[in-house]
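Entry 12.
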Amino acid sequence: MFSLAVALTHLSPSSAEPTSAEPANLDAAIASMRNIEIDKLDRGGKSAIYERLDTAWNTLMNAGDRGRERILRELKELDEKRVSDDFFRIDASMLLWFGWKFDAIDTIVAIWESTPNRHHYDQAFSVAYEAAKTRDTRALPLMKSLLRNDTGTACVPLHSMTMRWPLPLEFVWGVYGPGGGPELLKALKATKDPVVQKSCVILLVKMQYLEALPTIREIARKGEGEGRLYAIEWLGVLGHPDDREFLISGLKSTDPKVVVAHLMGLAGFEDMSTATAVAPTLNRDDELTRRQTLMTLSYCLGVDALISIHDRAVTAERDDEREACNSLVNSVLAGVGLDYESLTKLPRHEADEKLLAANPLEAMFRGRPGDRRCTHDELVKALDDWIARNRITGGPYAWLDSRHVLGAATVDDLNKLLEVRASVYRRLSDECLSEVAVLEDLIRRIGRRRFRRVTGLCVRAEAPPPTPARP
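Predicted 3D structure (tokens):
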């Protein structure tokens, strides 16, 4: 279906010469769209089909309401006769979008929900993305229909980019902006479908949509299958201190999948004090569990984590595992500027502070001596500039880095940052993804200020002190 998507997204029916809206011509146009087995055609055959479809589309669109009525009549007849013809149905849904936009939404959604996902994911993404860019609430049914598919691929020919779940969802819901949060939460509460659950959980956590926390907790504790596993992982990324003990408790499970999900959650949780609970899983028989344990310890790297990794390098039976542990220990020691014995002889809190100060993942978020200060007024102007230009690079505020934004931003700026992310998503290409990653780091840290004292890697995750009451 890739080639079809390329062809259809480049059609320009409105630019064609007017054609007759006589019933016979409309019937002929519909007939030329029926019973096409595109996957059985060679390159030349597909090219001929695209030309035929182009002519049919022009005929039906230039006929206005009569063209639409003819399409709907054909779809109704297929339903009544229980004829599938999935290619025609999806082709018709694309035509209805290009020709009649939101007036055809109900029919388009009905087609997508009654046609196997593998037949239309690429086209569905294209339509849902264009609809989401309008910020029209009528786009939401199209956007929601994508939540149930985690196997389709979406292609962006201009940039030779092939996207797999969840990236197409991130573009669609990201470009819609923060207004999508309530609808995602509504979809999450209403479903038992694990694909919809994990899709919603990822999108909501990336938005730092705090209203979803109780529902995500419920799925993490009582859900089933992949929906539960993803809820556990992304509960850690959300990072609320109250979830620390739950994430640790799951390491006692005898199910490797559950253990790995909790380990992934603890990696995102960024709490150095969890290392003592994580370290014993380095000795599990399951290789995947051991690999994830090493990864998790590297993300909450305090002195306890370092000692555990050092000890594992001595006891590991496999050469590659031993080398991975030694390499990590040596790179950390080089960053701190101390040898292993000197570092581990320091008082625990002092050693942890040294490791935290040397952590390269945190360096970009810390202020530097001689830094130019960013005022909040400047930040607001920068956010507006980024929204206007659909990018956070270049322009009059090119000097702003993540540390400047964090220094000037407040929790009240969270929605504006989500609007910036939405504007960047309007550049449908892989080259915008690095900017999205920067923004999502900022959104996560600023969002965590609502419930966490230190928003990034910390010695121990704790709630912030209560705000003094105003006199």
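Annotation: The two ends are 65 Å apart (CA to CA). The longest strand covers residues 153-156.
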